[in-house]
């Protein structure tokens, strides 16, 4: 999970790293955009070899939710 959070956080430019914890509701962050969402989906394919659909991703509220969906596909 720690490695995933670091890679997740790397998709954001201006948000401080300490904000990114498993319970973070990432869509509520000021910097959130659909482009960051696409970058996160792309990161999961490139770094972990796992494709999460946009529909599945949309259901995720926290970083842990995203992690759980991704790991369920491994």
Describe this structure in words.
This protein has helices at residues 2-9, 34-48, 54-58, 63-72. The longest helix has 15 residues, at 34-48. 51% of the residues lie in helices and 0% in strands. It has a domain at 1-12 and 20-54. The chain has 74 residues and is mainly alpha-helical.
Number of separate helices? 4
Using the CA coordinates, give the radius of gyration: 11 Å
Oligomeric state of the chains in view: single chain
Largest sheet: none
Q: Runs with pLDDT <50, length 5+?
A: none
How many distinct beta strands? 0
Provide the fold topology.
Blueprint lengths: L1 H8 L24 H15 L5 H5 L4 H10 L2
Question: Short summary of the structure?
Answer:
51% of the residues lie in helices and 0% in strands.
Index terms:
about 70 residues, mainly alpha, 4 helices
